[in-house]
Amino acid sequence: MIHIQGVTKSYGQGNLKTDVLKDIHLTVSEGEYVAIMGPSGSGKSTLMNILGALDRPTQGTYQFQGRDLSQMEAIELARVRNQSIGFIFQQFQLLSRLTAQKNVELPLIYAGIRGLKRKEMATTALNRVGLADRRDHLPSELSGGQQQRVAIARALVNQPDLLLADEPTGALDQASGDNVLDLFDGLHQEGKTIVMITHDSEVAARANRRIDILDGRIKETSQAGGSV
Ligand code: ADP
Ligand code: ADP
């Protein structure tokens, strides 16, 4: 699904040029559950932005589902993102004036899905995360754990091929974080491909494969404790 070869990402020019990612090679197969782990400033978010088609590498190639995204125009990248990738963020990024249901419907609005179909799809996604009974609540009326589950429903509602999660438990207490990771386990068992960024080794251990990134380089790839 993901095939990254020789990817470098640089910012600035001339003497001020810094390589934030350095000669990254990475392959992720369909159905894998991968944690990318590294300290602050190691390049995790930069790699995530490339994986999520939010940004392009300076050098190297990124093939996603057989298509080379490294040369793609921004508008085409947006299409890949909307159709194939679901995003989960540390701070949930829900719209505060919209109910849980409406937040989950948003990607479907962008996809041009209307009326009853849209409602049904959002309800299915909210059911999947166990929050159908909170559909009419605003984010401020939900706990952090519940807000993240709404955000996961929003990420799932388009049935994306890849789920990208950036510190998904970073803003949650232990119990709510575990709940989110249990949800990821279930999605992995259903065959979803998941790439999760974290700086927490206990969180990374929940994935089936761990990739360490340090100073812009992939340091090692080792199997973590999780079961396949
Ligand atoms: P992490 O997510 O692991 O904390 P980042 O990918 O955010 O790391 O950043 C890696 C390095 O790249 C940091 O040193 C950061 O300052 C630098 N960096 C990130 N984005 C930019 C940018 N737009 N311009 C210049 N430097 C950047
Ligand atoms: P979770 O494990 O899903 O994070 P919590 O244990 O944090 O749930 O919250 C328990 C209950 O308290 C939730 O069902 C939620 O409805 C309610 N609750 C938590 N935080 C808030 C809040 N800020 N406003 C309203 N209700 C809240």
Automatic annotation (TrEMBL):
PROSITE patterns: ABC_TRANSPORTER_1, ABC_TRANSPORTER_2
Glycoprotein recorded as keyword: no
One Pfam family in the UniProt entry: ABC_tran
Keyword annotations of the record: ATP-binding, Nucleotide-binding, Transport
Domain ABC transporter: from-to ranges: 2-228
Key word tRNA processing present: no
GO MF, one example: ATP hydrolysis activity
SUPFAM superfamilies: P-loop containing nucleoside triphosphate hydrolases
Superkingdom of source: Bacteria
Matching InterPro entries: AAA+_ATPase (IPR003593), ABC_transporter-like_ATP-bd (IPR003439), ABC_transporter-like_CS (IPR017871), ABC_transpr_LolD-like (IPR015854), MacB-like_ATP-bd (IPR017911), P-loop_NTPase (IPR027417)
This protein's GO CC annotations: membrane protein complex; plasma membrane
The protein's name in its UniProt record: Putative ABC transport system ATP-binding protein
Lineage: Bacteria, Bacillati, Bacillota, Bacilli, Bacillales
Coiled coil: none
